[in-house]
Request: fold
Amino acid sequence: MALAIPVSGLAQYTPPEQNFSMPTPQPRPTISGTPIPYPAYGTPAPDVAAQAPKKGVPQTISLAQAVKIAVALNPAFANENAQWAAIHARYTSSVQALYPGLSATGSLNTSRNITQSIVQPGATAGPSVTPVPASVINFGGRTLTESGTIQLTQLIFDGGRTIANIKSAKEADYAGRATLLRQLQTLELNVANAYYAVLQDNATVVADSQLVHEFEVNEDSVAAQIRNGAAARSDIATAAYQTAQARGQLVTAQGTAIAAQASFATTLGLNADTEVLPKDIGKEPTGANPTYEKSLARAMLMRPDYIAAQYSVTSSQQNLRYAKLARFPLVTGVASYTTARQVPQYTNPFSVYNPYYVPSSVLGIDVSIPIQRSAGRLAARSGDRHAAADQAAGAVRRARRSRQPDLGQGGAGPGQGGAGQRAGLAGRDLGPV
Reply:
């Protein structure tokens, strides 16, 4: 026998409502807004990420603009440019030794002197007349001497020493110019690394912010499931832990982005708190990945530091030749023209002065021959120059060998350096400046 009980007469069972607090700190981070106020959670610290605009510097710049600003304001590059300017000045001054030297000098001197003149006794009229005794007249004063000289000198023979000095300075100038170019490429590489580091760190902040939002949504979903009885209460602890961990990663990413921004500003030669941000970039074209042999050949052909080392070797060799040629005699032609006069500032009744200028001229040859003591000093100098030439040759060999591991590290893979690093190792320009 079946017992029928109407369902409507029974009350439905309703589980008791479970109330518990959700660990949701305030304020919540924005998802699309960037930059996010630092820190996203915890005590606000607005001074940490505070920035101030600089007059004449755009707030948002491209990579080409960043390189131009760094070239104009970076103090390290300004120092390197001044060093090359000093090397270039040595070359321009050494060339002047081939040309005649013309100089002019003038002098205006005054001197004081005292002159004594003895006046002989006068004639007597007879023996009864007393003779006139001799007398001494003292007179003197200042004498003004005026003179002017024009001198012309011309190198005639030095055994080729001047030519060797010019060649040494010229090769050193080329080496300094190549070194400056390499330093410019290094500066471009540093700017590019700092530029992309800011973009990467800002993107990491945005990604971590979105990750925090996903964990918060997941935490809310778990809480709803617990209220509906579809999940255990212990599941909320796991969800809350994931959310807290994502928030900590977000704050850490914010600190990294602030440090990258300060490093980018200082790389450009600006203050660390300058408001200057890199522009967002789209998809960049991927260049061909050359083989190791081609990269090495390109580096040996276009790397400015390797080229500078080769020029330094030639400069050292010419400098050694310059030191050895100092044993030759030095012959110089000299021609000079001088005019002078003396103008007394007093009257001497016993002298006659010429008020006009008196000219004089000299035409001759100066010969300088090194003797034993000079030869000893020249031998010491030649030894120093020879050692410098050997050091320069060794620097070329070291530069050639150092390029090989650099290229291997630069092209090892995505995790071993980007396209900018490989371009810098191969000596390529990163873009128009």
Remarks:
- The beta strands are 60-61, 101-119, 135-157, 277-278, 330-344, 358-368.
- Residues 1-34, 411-433 have pLDDT under 50 and may be disordered.
